[in-house]
Write a structure and sequence with these properties.
2 domains; 4-stranded antiparallel beta sheet
């Protein structure tokens, strides 16, 4: 004896179910719209950040010991691109497809002299260098007094016994075209985060006055 299956009657959705489905659909569309807008905003912000970091405020990681104790290996600093440089500032310049960081000691027109003990004289006056802990003549094959020519800078590393810089004819004076910018802020490690300012008597001594 064959049994017939009773067909299940389809019940129309209630008004509550319809309202719930509509609300769910609206929420889904709103969520997708907000998510899309957020992603687009993040992409724009990231693009602007990359552009600023590349063109205005590049971030560099220190490699080596030539700037110790001021800057140590693997520390991270921010570079600002500027055509104006002063004595005592830390500059970044290009050399043989690499970026090097040193301290500006002499600007165009300055006269530099370094004795065997590593004491630096700027325009005849002993330069106060509290950032140097190992005064040394280092790798030096230039003759003193050394005059800084136009559009060039005389640079030294703070770790004088190991740094290869303007004391060596291999590097020599750094031209203004080589300068990328100056180091002005350290962002890593966090406990040393802060601005990096020139130290010592970086201003050139005044010309002596002749009394009549």
């Amino acid at each position: 004896m064959a049994l017939r299956r009773k067909k299940k009657e389809l019940q129309p959705p209630t008004s509550g179910q319809i309202e719930k489905a509509i609300a769910k659909e609206q929420y889904s569309r709103k969520y997708k719209k907000v998510l899309k807008s957020t992603i687009s905003s993040l992409i724009v912000v990231a693009a602007i950040a990359v552009l600023i970091a590349t063109l205005v405020l590049p971030v560099l990681q220190i490699q080596g010991s030539s700037m110790e104790p001021t800057l140590n290996d693997e520390e991270i600093v921010v570079l600002i691109k500027t055509p104006t440089l002063k004595r005592g500032q830390l500059c970044c310049f290009s050399y043989q497809n690499k970026l090097l960081i040193k301290r500006i000691i002499g600007i165009p027109g300055d006269s530099i002299n370094i004795n065997e003990k590593g004491d630096v004289y700027l325009n005849g006056e002993l330069l106060d260098e509290p950032y140097v802990i190992d005064r040394a003549l280092g790798e030096c094959d230039i003759k003193f007094p050394f005059h800084v020519t136009e559009n060039h800078y005389f640079i030294l590393g703070d770790h004088r016994s190991t740094s290869i810089d303007s004391r060596s004819s291999v590097v020599g004076l750094v031209s203004s075209e080589q300068i990328v910018g100056r180091i002005f802020f350290r962002i890593w490690p966090f406990d040393k985060m802060g601005s990096i300012e020139p130290q010592g008597n970086t201003e050139s001594p005044e010309e002596p006055q002749v009394q009549e």
